[in-house]
Design a protein that fits this description.
The protein is mainly alpha-helical and 322 residues long. The protein is built from 10 helices and no strands. It has one domain: CHAD domain. The chain starts with 12 loop residues before the first helix and ends in a 10-residue tail after the last helix. The N terminus is likely disordered.
């Protein structure tokens, strides 16, 4: 990467691709075009990720690079009839590794911000002990360790092999049995498969007992909604406005469930902070307030997710898949 690239934001898909695939394109052409866009985004984000700790302009780059890995992996997993899993599965597995490494660097930053935001409106008389300092002290070393791990990964032969394998897959041709068929005939059915997985997981979450089992089930449902969203994004050049409407609904679903997962993790962090304060001889009252705040926030978001799913799963958003 050049020095100039570290000072610019990643190109938008229209710039990268020149023109989007026409609606009568083959399934292989549409899927490969999507993969090339986000493989390009992943590569161009790397310099900003490396600079992110020192340059506030690039601090969101870790999140954006993680999103690129998720988009790539979702499409490789969903369209196995276009790009055979024998070709894509090893790349998808390595994208999962990279995404998890990026996630470690991102998640602690998000949780730290959530807890600070929760503390901000708390009346001073309820802030008992060095609460802000303990929150900072809890997350700072975790963020530093996660960043070191991330930079080590980006410098590793494993990462560079991933980029080479990604180049190989996106160069084409797509060799799946349906790669040459019209995209509008092939891709919607695959998106429907991803949607059905999300539907099953939402049902499982609805019937799961309250507590960790339900939290895990909702997190799994979020992953499926995200996969359905990105698969529909890839299909949208061939399926048009209806696919884009479905994308918007899955994006809302993903967002609500993501906020729920953040609240669950923040609640766990508040508990850990309270235990640490107690063992240090401090009053843990304020951490109990934080825990309770995140518990109720998670419950509100869970109910919101149920309402959002009822809306997002309406047939009018799914007719294009049939």
């Amino acid at each position: 990467m050049t020095t100039t690239e570290t000072l610019t934001r990643p190109e938008r898909p229209a710039v990268i691709a020149g023109t989007k695939p026409p609606r009568d394109s083959s399934a292989g052409d549409v899927v490969l075009a999507y993969l090339r866009i986000h493989a390009h985004a992943l590569k161009t984000l790397e310099p900003a990720v490396r600079a992110g700790e020192f340059d506030p302009v690039h601090q969101d780059s870790v999140h954006q690079m993680r999103v690129a890995t998720r988009r790539l992996r979702a499409v490789l997993r969903t369209f196995g009839q276009v790009i055979p899993h024998a070709d894509s599965s090893p790349v998808a597995a390595e994208l999962q590794w990279l995404g998890r490494t990026l996630g470690q660097a991102r998640d602690d930053e998000v949780l730290s911000g959530l807890l600070r935001d929760s503390l901000r409106p708390t009346p001073p008389e309820l802030l008992i002990g060095p609460v802000q300092a303990r929150v900072q002290g809890y997350f700072a070393p975790r963020r530093a360790a996660a960043r070191d791990t991330l930079l080590e990964a980006l410098d590793s032969p494993r990462y560079h092999q991933l980029l080479a394998d990604l180049d190989r897959v996106t160069a084409g041709p797509a060799n799946g049995p349906l790669a040459g068929a019209p995209a509008r005939d092939v891709l919607p059915a695959a998106v429907q498969g991803a949607y059905r997985q999300a539907k099953r997981r939402m049902k499982r979450a609805r019937h799961a007992p309250a507590g960790p089992a339900r939290d895990v089930a909702l997190h799994q449902a979020r992953k499926s909604a995200r996969r359905a969203r990105y698969a529909a994004e890839a299909a949208s050049p061939a399926s048009g406005k209806q696919a884009r409407r479905f994308v918007r609904q899955m994006k809302k679903m993903q967002s609500v469930l993501g906020d729920h997962h953040d609240a669950v993790l923040a609640r766990q962090a508040a508990r850990d902070l309270g235990i640490g304060a107690h063992l240090a001889g401090e009053n843990a009252f304020t951490y109990g307030l934080l825990h309770e705040h995140e518990f109720h926030r998670a419950e509100r978001l869970r109910m919101h997710a149920r309402r959002q799913w009822r809306h997002a799963s309406r047939s009018r958003y799914r007719r294009w898949m049939n």
